[in-house]
Amino acid sequence: MLSENRLNNLKDKTLEYVKEHHIKHLVFSRESVSKSKKLLNQLSQVGVKIYVYYVNFQAGRNEKYAVEYKLGSVFGMYADDWNFKAN
């Protein structure tokens, strides 16, 4: 699984790099999802699954927020406090 920190160094060659190295899973911070929608869509189209972390960083931007507003762009998330029975 490759993180966005590594991808940031690739700049415009991210899609090429991911294809060339057969990368299937990437992780992004929740804050980066909105900034990277075009890239995330391109990556999803080639079968890459995107996961989000840093979910509880801001008040009101918790796991429930990520599910409601980010899961269209991402495949899954790292969750500290998700209550499967209540949500």
Structural class: alpha/beta
Oligomer: single chain
Shape verdict: elongated
The profile of the biggest β sheet is: 4 strands, parallel
How much of the sequence lies in strands comes to 15-25%
Unreliable stretches, pLDDT < 50, 5 or more residues? none
- How many helices? The count is 5
Helix content: 40-55%
How many strand segments? 4
Q: Give the topology string: H per helix, E per strand.
A: EHHEHHEHE
Radius of gyration: 13 Å
Mean pLDDT, all residues = 76
Structure in a nutshell:
This protein has 87 residues and is α/β, with parallel strands linked by helices.
Describe this structure in words.
The protein has 87 residues and is of the alpha/beta class. Strands 1-2-3-4 form a 4-stranded parallel sheet. Helix content is 41%, strand content 16%. The relative contact order is 0.17. The chain is elongated. It starts with a strand and ends in a 10-residue tail after the last strand. The protein has 5 helices and 4 strands. The mean pLDDT is 76. The chain has helices spanning 4-10, 14-20, 30-35, 37-45, 63-69; strands spanning 2-3, 25-29, 49-53, 76-77.
Entry keywords:
single chain, 87 residues, alpha/beta, 5 helices, 41% helix, 16% strand, elongated
How are the SSEs ordered, and which strands pair?
Layout: E1 2-3, H1 4-10, H2 14-20, E2 25-29, H3 30-35, H4 37-45, E3 49-53, H5 63-69, E4 76-77
Parallel strand pairs: 1-2, 2-3, 3-4
